[in-house]
Structures are given as C-alpha cells and as structure tokens.
C-alpha cells in the first residue's frame, strides 16, 4: 500500500469522495453532515491523502489543522471492495504520525452516531480515541459522535 499526498484531481478519488458524501447524507440529516466537499479538502490547513495498491484506489483521508496543537481527521473512507483489509488502520496510523510530526497535542474527529458508523467507531477505538464533547465549531447533535485522543 502506498499513501500519497493529494489526488483530488484523480477521477477514482473524486468518485470515492462522492460515495463518501452520499453515504453520509444517506445515514444522517443534511444539517448533521459535516464532511468537506472538494473545495473544502483543497483549503489551506487541510492535507489530503489517497491510499493505493498499484492503480487500485484503496481509500482516502484528510487532516485539518484546527490550531497549532489540534488536528481533526476528515473524509476517512475505504473503497467498498477493499474493506477489512487494513486501509483504514493504515490511514489513521499515517495521520497520527503526521500529527505528531507537526507537534499537535490532540487529534479529534466527528462522525455519525448510527449503526452505519459502527465499524468506524471500532477503528478509532483501536487507536485510543474516546468520546469527547463537541470541539471547534461543532454543536451537540444526536447524529454526531465526537472522538479525541491526546498525542
């Protein structure tokens, strides 16, 4: 597996992100979906990665800088045909390494609260993330779960 920075112009990446957007909207009300669209993923302070096996896109993820000591995981998605093969774990490990190298003291994320998000919750728990209060500009929402960990 090769994790590459960027890829937002690749048609496979755009297609996977569209699946991600549609999945979020299918499982949570629109006002409770906090994904970054393509322009948001290109914004200053956001770093995007895509994971590949040769020409096969495995997944993607992003890291948004909230402040000099706090980052947020965004846009984590594994391609359906590559689920349960370690892509998500590799991307989280990569982001943890980058966050530490940047000197972040905390890494957080917002995800959905329903059954469709159980696998994501389990993945983040494996990496030491625990539930926390809403952070940054988020508000309490029954369709959101907030997780964080100290680095």
UniProtKB/TrEMBL annotation:
Keywords: Acyltransferase, Transferase. Gene3D superfamilies: 3.40.630.30. GO terms for molecular function: acyltransferase activity, transferring groups other than amino-acyl groups. It comes from the Bacteria. The keyword Magnesium does not apply. Residues 1-148 form the N-acetyltransferase domain. InterPro entries: Acyl_CoA_acyltransferase, Bact_Acetyltransf, GNAT_dom. SUPFAM superfamilies: Acyl-CoA N-acyltransferases (Nat). This is GNAT family N-acetyltransferase. It comes from Sphingomonas gei.
């Amino acid at each position: 597996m090769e994790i590459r920075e960027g890829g937002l112009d690749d048609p496979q990446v755009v297609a996977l992100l569209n699946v991600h957007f549609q999945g979020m909207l299918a499982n949570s009300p629109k006002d409770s979906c906090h994904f970054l669209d393509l322009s948001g993923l290109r914004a200053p302070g956001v770093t995007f990665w895509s994971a590949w096996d040769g020409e096969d896109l495995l997944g993607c993820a992003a890291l948004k800088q909230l402040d000099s000591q706090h980052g947020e995981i965004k846009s984590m998605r594994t391609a359906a045909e590559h689920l349960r093969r370690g892509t998500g774990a590799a991307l989280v490990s990569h982001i943890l390494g980058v966050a530490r190298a940047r000197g972040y003291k905390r890494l957080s994320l917002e995800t959905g609260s329903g059954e469709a998000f159980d696998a994501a919750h389990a993945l983040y728990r494996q990496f030491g993330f625990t539930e926390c209060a809403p952070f940054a500009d988020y508000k309490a929402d029954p369709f959101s779960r907030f997780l964080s960990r100290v680095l």
